[in-house]
Design goal:
Blueprint: E1 2-6, E2 9-13, H1 21-28, E3 47-50, E4 53-56, H2 62-65, E5 69-71, H3 84-91, H4 101-114, H5 120-126, H6 137-153
Parallel strand pairs: 1-5
Antiparallel strand pairs: 1-2, 3-4, 3-5
Bound molecules: FE2/S2 (inorganic) cluster (2 copies).
Length: 164
């Protein structure tokens, strides 16, 4: 068994230690926000946050994240009470098909934890591994700038910026 800490909850999971984290999140823990896109570390759809860093969960074995703090989009807020990142993405209508959005959000969450008010260049750089086939990049950029404003307005300290 491997012990995982996901969105503040502890789970004992039975998968083999070399199983990609993405499969465990989706198949064992029923957390389906992170998406399978390429499975090869090339599209960013599976991005989650591990100890504050954006990580591609399709190429990250379970054993590497044991005991670390894992956050997925489910940990950013709820439908009834969306967190600032979720609220900003809704406000800016950043999703088209939506497949890339959870990965975009988790890369953005990691960025905003380290850099409260990133420039457009810094946002583009942090999201360079996240692909969007719908081409909604400009609205995603606007949503991340808005999330930064909402977090600032709420006085959220950096350490809490992944919380809803
Ligand atoms: S599914 Fe992980 S990078 Fe594409
Ligand atoms: S919104 Fe469709 S892939 Fe990005």
């Amino acid at each position: 068994m491997t012990t995982l800490n996901v969105n503040g909850h502890t789970h004992e999971v039975a998968s083999e230690p070399d199983t990609p984290l993405l499969y465990v999140l989706r198949n064992e823990l029923n957390l389906n926000a992170a998406k399978f896109g390429c499975g090869l570390g090339q599209c960013g759809a599976c991005t989650v946050m591990v100890d504050g860093q954006a990580v591609l969960s399709c190429v990250t074995p379970l054993i590497v994240v044991e005991g670390k703090e894992i956050v997925t989009v489910e940990g950013l807020g709820t439908a009834e009470k969306p967190g600032p990142l979720q609220a900003a993405f809704i406000e800016k209508q950043a999703a088209q098909c939506g497949y890339c959005i959870p990965g975009m959000m988790m890369s953005a969450a990691a960025l905003l934890k380290q850099n409260a008010t990133p420039t457009d260049e810094e946002i583009r750089s942090a999201l360079r591994t996240n692909l969007c086939r719908c081409g909604t990049h400009m609205r995603i950029l606007a949503a991340i700038r808005r999330a930064s404003e909402l977090m600032e307005a709420a006085g959220l300290p950096a350490a809490k910026r992944s919380a809803g």
